[in-house]
Specification:
By secondary structure, chain A is mainly alpha-helical. Chain A has 34 helices and seven strands. In chain A, the strands form two sheets. Chain A has a five-stranded mixed beta sheet with strand order 2-4-5-7-6. In chain A, a hairpin with a 7-residue loop joins strand 6 and strand 7. By secondary structure, chain B is mostly helical. Helices cover about 70% and strands about 0% of the residues of chain B. Chain B starts with 11 loop residues before the first helix and ends with a helix. Classes of the chains: A mainly alpha, B mainly alpha. Chains A and B meet through helix 4, helix 10, helix 11 and helix 13 of A and helix 1 and helix 2 of B.
Chain lengths: ~900, ~90
């Protein structure tokens, strides 16, 4: 393969990328505020752009990894698969937070969560740059190595004597591309549609290239799937050892890296156009990873069989088709590797440049004396800062490559970077799931984790004796053996990578949690913490501003410097319109300051945006007292509504009581009418017979026997009338409370004896068994004993009259408690139906037909009145097996006990 | 109407959606456990690991997890209120 052709292919490929990115940017610009074209916002482009995860390390390095460690290379893809399967738990929340708060990078996310702390932004940026520089160097190395493969293949042709030169050209070319398309605009949300589309194209190229090489190996060189499986079983790869610590640790490490790698955070969270794309990516991206890994083992196995010993296994993908004389396939593989390397470098550079400009350059610029508040287009400064940052990142990567080229296996550098960025994980997860996480805690965790990573993994990766002297590896710094980089605290038996992963994350998470627990967060941290953790909760979050201390015009001037004149004016006008004001300048309310800050942070990051607003408003940020006041207000509203509720319940209760009283009154009126008609009826019946018989007697001429009989009837009826009138009189006296009580003392058992004897006259033909407890009755009561006996007689007579049992029995149970006596009369009949229980104490209430009762129906009404006069009561006890009446009264009646 | 977070009893469609979310939450943990399974496969004494078998198992499991995620994804990205009319 001639070198010129190779270079030409590269240039043509890059030209296509430029064209794609350029065309998309133009389409987006032409769409005029309507955003990029629809197909660009499709989940397919989003998923493909995620493939920046698969760098040259995947494309070339996975095969080398498989040769060295068998199936362990799968962990790098299984970890992210798990994260995407669980997108509902974590990724969805990350994307929602980033959208709500206009997050521009992972450093912005962490710094914004912890009170928009500039310091945390700097620390996270530092970690990212430190971890990513060798990773970028790795990509440059892979490109120059792949050039070298072609060179060594043609001994007669050209010879690549300075691989570093290739790398330099590549780095320079990528810097130009990234600067052109990565810093075109400083728009909200930091989305780069042109670059993302170019990345998506590269994703397709590298997938097709790897699949083509894989298919060639499986069906061209080997004899199909079954044959490949046989060869796997027979090859040296089959001797791999599955180490539980590495298997688990690497899956975890890769899972952490997929969200904390700066470029992954950029494409996954910042460039996400629609939350629903995550749902598609949740299975499509793992599927992409599966396809990328599918042919790795076959290529490794066949490569080991066919290529001469000593061939770098990291380049089997390229060397194998070349050795088999498949020039076109080799070219495709080369382009695949090239695109894997370039897409990673471009995205990483954009992400790092955003962080560097927002968290390092801008704060520095603003802190320059009398510079920050002066007029001038800040956008230009930000863009220049970004361009310089991109160039610097590339230069760093290139110098690292030039310094340490070809020292370690490709995979080793990748994993070192993974462990490095994983240090952001505790602060990030703690920040979005735990409201108690504080700025100090995050800072402590990040610093300690970063330091342990540097000491145990990063610096040792340069080799013993380069950065850290060999003596330190053996005996620790200054003879402190417990600080040996590969055996921290004497733990020497672990795999070095797992050792570093374990200690750095343990120290990181431990410090983060411990310091968070003992420190107290500032007001802004608390506001942000609540907003991040409860991002899905509806309702308005607490504000980060308490009052507007700035003029609207000043703010507009500043916004114009960052957003551009038109965008800033439109934003202010919309805000004014939303407040119901005409013109350009809205009232400076806390809500407006919040919205403006969010808008600005989409361009320069939350920490910088906040710092700029503070500069202008004079630090009118929210205080703990403000937060408490808001909380108090809420609490007061809740208390007020609770009081309202209680009052409403009270009103309902009163209304019910009133309704009951009304019902009772209506009933009483009906009863009074009934009473009158009842009494007329009761009086009329005996009067009628008296009148009839007295008329017969007046007419005379009757036999004496008849005269006697009729006179007897008249007498009986007169007696009945008298008794009725007596009862009525009695009742009215009792009801008026004018009755004279004759207070005497008597034994209760005597009273009951008397009542039983008297009541025996009622239905004397019935045999009635009475159960009593003589001991319980044996005490004296002081009351109107005659009246009390009258009540007893009435109740017992009723039992005799109405108890419908075949073998009637009456139980009399007496109880004394605290000066109150209760006497229960319980028979074994069928009792009184529930609906009638309320009626029996009313006048003229008779449940059965009149003839059987034989009374006027005043008995129980009188009893009730008597008992009230005696300071007690009589009640019907439901559920006692038969009719049961409870008579209760004070053992000693005093003047005050009498019911009014 | 049933999108209230605290509602203890919801319509069948919303109930389905909640169980779908449960499944989506469980899936990564189930996947992790299954990925740990090869750790328990001791090769017989003296013999090498069954690398071909491991390869087939891991890729089959991977494909299965992807299929499960693909089955859950459409239901999850649709808000529950939309599904109510359809299968209420």
């Amino acid at each position: 393969m001639p070198f010129d052709l190779l270079v030409l292919a590269c240039i043509a490929y890059v030209a296509i990328l430029f064209a794609v990115a350029f065309a998309v940017e133009r389409r987006t610009a032409a769409a005029d505020g309507a955003g990029p074209p629809r197909w660009l916002r499709s989940p397919v482009v989003y998923t493909l752009s995620l493939s920046v995860y698969c760098t040259a390390w995947t494309f070339y390095g996975a095969v080398g990894y498989a040769v060295r460690s068998g199936l362990e290379f799968l962990t790098i893809y299984l970890g992210p698969t798990l994260v995407f399967l669980g997108w509902w738990i974590l990724l969805r929340k990350l994307v929602r937070i980033a959208k709500t708060h206009r997050i521009t990078s992972i450093a912005d996310l962490v710094s914004s969560r912890f009170g928009k702390s500039p310091l945390i932004g700097v620390v996270v940026t530092l970690i990212c740059v430190t971890a990513s520089t060798p990773y970028i160097a790795l990509q440059l190395q892979s490109v120059s190595l792949s050039f070298a493969v072609f060179a060594s293949d043609t001994p007669a042709g050209w010879h690549l004597d300075r691989p570093a030169q290739t790398a330099m050209w590549v780095a320079a070319g990528l810097a130009i591309f990234t600067i052109l398309f990565g810093t075109r605009n400083l728009d909200a949300n930091e989305q780069h549609h042109g670059v993302v589309t170019a990345i998506a194209v590269e994703a397709v190229v590298k997938l097709l290239a790897l699949l083509a090489v894989g298919a060639f190996v499986v069906w061209g060189l080997a004899g199909g799937v079954a044959d490949v499986l046989d060869r796997i079983a027979a090859s040296p790869v089959a001797g791999w050892e599955l180490k539980p610590d590495r298997w688990t640790g690497l899956i975890f490490c890769a899972a952490a890296a997929i969200i904390t790698l700066p470029r992954m955070f950029q494409v996954l969270v910042v460039e996400n156009a629609d939350e629903r794309h995550l749902a598609v990516a949740s299975w499509a991206f793992p599927a992409y990873l599966l396809l990328m890994s599918l042919f790795v083992v076959p290529i490794a196995v066949v490569g080991l069989e066919r290529l001469p010993a000593g061939t770098n296994p990291d380049l089997f993908v390229l060397a194998l088709p070349l050795a088999e004389g498949q020039g076109t396939l080799a070219m495709l593989a080369f382009l695949g590797g090239f695109s894997a390397a370039t897409s990673m470098v471009i995205m990483e550079a954009i992400a790092l440049a955003t962080m560097l400009s927002n968290h390092v350059a801008m704060p520095l610029w603003l802190s320059l004396p009398r510079r920050g508040a002066e007029a001038g287009d800040l956008r230009r400064i930000v863009l220049v800062a970004r361009r310089v940052a991109i160039a610097a990142v590339m230069a760093l990567g290139y110098s690292y490559y030039a310094m340490a080229s070809g020292t370690a296996g490709l995979a080793a550098i990748g994993l070192i970077a993974f462990v490095g960025v994983a240090q952001i994980l505790p602060a990030m997860l703690g920040g979005i799931f735990w409201r108690g996480a504080t700025r100090a805690g995050a800072l402590a965790g990040l610093t300690i984790g970063f330091s342990v990573w540097l000491w145990t993994l990063y610096l040792p990766s340069f080799g013993e004796g380069t950065v850290i002297p060999a003596a330190v590896f053996a005996e620790g710094p200054f003879g402190a053996g417990w600080l040996r980089p590969r055996a921290l605290f004497g733990v020497g038996g672990m795999d070095p990578l797992i050792h570093a992963l374990f200690w750095s994350l343990a120290a990181n998470a431990g410090a983060f949690v411990a310091v968070s627990l003992i420190t107290f967060p500032g007001p802004l941290e608390r506001v942000q913490g609540a907003a991040f953790v409860n991002v899905f909760a509806e309702g308005e979050a607490a504000r980060g501003w308490s009052a507007g201390g700035a003029g609207a015009e000043e703010l507009l001037v500043m916004a114009q410097r960052i957003l551009g004149e038109d965008a800033a004016l439109a934003f202010f006008r919309d805000a004014a319109a939303a407040q119901g004001k005409a013109g350009w300048l809205p009232d400076i309310t806390p809500a407006f300051l919040d919205a403006l800050e969010r808008r600005l942070s989409g361009s320069v990051g939350a920490a910088t945006a906040h710092a700029m607003l503070v500069q202008i408003t004079g630090g009118a940020t929210v205080s703990v007292e403000d937060l408490m006041a808001v909380a108090n207000e809420t609490a007061q509203i809740m208390e007020y509504s609770a009081r309202l509720e209680a009052r409403e319940a009270e009103l309902t209760r009163t209304a019910r009581q009133l309704r009951e009283a009304n019902d009772k009154l209506t009933q009483l009126s009906v009863q009074k009418d009934a009473f009158l008609s009842q009494i007329s009826h009761e009086l009329r019946t005996p009067m009628t017979s008296i009148r009839a018989f007295s008329e017969i007697l007046r007419d005379g001429e009757l036999p004496p026997a008849m005269t006697v009989r009729y006179a007897g009837i008249i007498h009986d009826e007169a007696v009945r009338l008298t008794r009725l009138l007596d009862d009525l009189l009695d009742l009215s006296v009792l009801e008026n409370g004018t009755v004279q009580l004759a207070i005497r003392t008597a034994r209760l058992s005597d009273l009951i004896d008397r009542a039983l004897t008297a009541a025996a006259a009622t239905r004397p033909e019935r045999r009635f068994s009475v159960q009593r407890d003589p001991e319980a009755e044996d005490f004296e009561v002081t009351s109107d004993t005659d009246r009390l006996a009258q009540v007893f007689i009435n109740v017992i007579s009723n039992a005799r009259k109405y108890c419908d049992a075949d073998d009637p029995a009456l139980r009399i149970a007496v109880r004394r408690q605290g000066g109150q006596v209760t006497v229960d009369f319980i028979d074994n009949g069928s009792g009184i139906p529930a609906e009638s229980q309320g009626l029996i104490f009313e006048k003229f209430a008779r449940l059965t037909d009149e003839t059987r009762a034989g009374g006027a129906g005043l008995g129980l009404a009188i009893c009730r009145e008597i008992m009230q006069n005696l300071g007690g009561g009589i009640a019907y006890l439901p559920g006692r097996g038969g009719a049961a009446f409870r008579v209760s009264f004070p053992q000693v009646l005093k003047a005050g006990d009498r019911a009014a | 109407m049933t999108t209230l977070g605290g509602a203890p009893f919801v319509a069948p469609a919303a109930y389905r959606h909640r169980r779908l979310i449960d499944a989506a939450r469980i899936l990564p943990f189930a996947g992790f456990l299954l990925l740990m399974l090869p750790l328990a496969w001791e090769p017989p004494a003296g013999a090498l690991r069954d690398t071909a078998g491991d390869t087939v198992y891991l890729f089959a499991l991977w494909a299965l997890l992807i299929a499960a995620a693909a089955a859950l994804a459409p239901g999850l990205s649709r808000p529950p209120s939309e599904g109510q009319g359809r299968d209420g």
